[in-house]
Amino acid sequence: MPERIKVFVVDDSAVVRQVVTGVLAADPGIEVIGSAIDPLFALDKMNRQWPDVIVLDIEMPRMDGITFLKKIMAERPTPVVICSSLTEKGAATSIEALAAGAIGIVTKPGIGVRRFLIEEAAAELIHSVKAAAGARLNRLPPRAASLPAPALKPAAEALAPRALAAMQQTTERIVALGTSTGGTQALEAVLTALPRTAPGIVIVQHMPERFTASFAARLDALCEIEVREARSNDRVIPGRALIAPGGRHMQLRRSGAQYVVEVSDGPLVNRHRPSVDVLFRSVAKGAGRNALGVIMTGMGDDGARGLKDIHDVGGVTLAQDEASSVVYGMPREAVKLGAVNRSVPLGAIAGEIARFA
């Protein structure tokens, strides 16, 4: 029998600790080796038996979760899954935690924790812990957070005439990116390397509802291109990247000579909403051979079949290579399906996008 994943839970709520422990312990592949009310108690216990994965609250007494996370990553790097509230502050802090090296986010509401975790989020919690256990933290890209913020940028529609003229040749070009575990750091590495004249980009990053707005805002502050959470009928234009909202699917469609996105509800696809497959299939249909599809780090197979659709209509398809992927799950499945023209390291993806334009 394979060794079980050892998990430690850190949360100042006794109810959350009890419920999270119960949900995880019910999976035969997971063993909860302990829990603590705050990071200082946690360190004392974990030093006796170190876990494979830490499930961590952000807002706690004595030492906050971000400080604890940075200490762990500096001294003994360990996969961390953030257990965060659905508040605006909780979302922004959780994105900061992802930038500091956390692997994923699961959500908890302010009330009704027991019912929420048992009825709605148990499967996602287990999936996140298993994905984190398979993550290779040494493949996380360097943080761009330390870079100086770019100068104030114009709206994508109001770029200088020279830039606009240069981009008129690329308006038919569409780039679609799909990613999951390890993807927040990978997307930061790619998008911060792109110039304002980059082609229009549509992105699915597996992330809970309400967190994608904070994620997009953080990237927008770091990038030369405009990055924002997508809304229905947003135009996909050069110099702009649209990120599918957590909890909703995003599709590309043509509107005359323009590309726009549709954001909608719908059933989970490959366990996810938003789903990379849903986006990629719409890109294959709407952009055809004018599309570049890129599948990046993540657990599972979401996006593999959609990337095959882009490949089969004559679009260009890339996969992040195994050596640079935190979790080489989604790219592997796409390669196995024959959906990938080439596999490239993370550091080469921005250059591939520029050459495609």
How would you describe this structure to a colleague?
By secondary structure, this protein is of the alpha/beta class. Helix content is 36%, strand content 21%. The protein has helices at 14-25, 39-46, 65-75, 88-99, 113-133, 161-167, 183-191, 212-222, 276-287, 304-312, 330-336, 346-356, and strands at 5-10, 30-36, 53-57, 80-85, 104-108, 174-179, 200-205, 226-229, 240-243, 249-255, 258-264, 291-295, 316-320, 342-344. The strands form three sheets. It has a seven-stranded parallel β-sheet, with helices on both faces. Strands 2-1-3-4-5 form a five-stranded parallel β-sheet, sandwiched between helices. Helix 4 (88-99) packs across helix 8 and helix 10 crosses helix 11 (330-336). The radius of gyration is 20 Å and the shape is elongated. The model is unreliable at 145-150 and 159-171 (pLDDT under 50).
Structural class: alpha/beta
Biggest sheet: strands side by side, in what order? 8-9-7-6-12-13-14
* Biggest pleated sheet: 7 strands, parallel
CA-to-CA gap between the ends? Answer: 50 Å
Radius of gyration: 20 Å
Shape: elongated
Mean pLDDT: 88
Q: Would you list the SSEs in sequence order as H and E?
A: EHEHEHEHEHHEHEHEEEEHEHEHEH
Low-confidence stretches: 145-150, 159-171
Number of helical stretches of at least 4 residues: 12
Percent of residues in β-strands:
15-25%
Helix content: 25-40%
Number of strands: 14
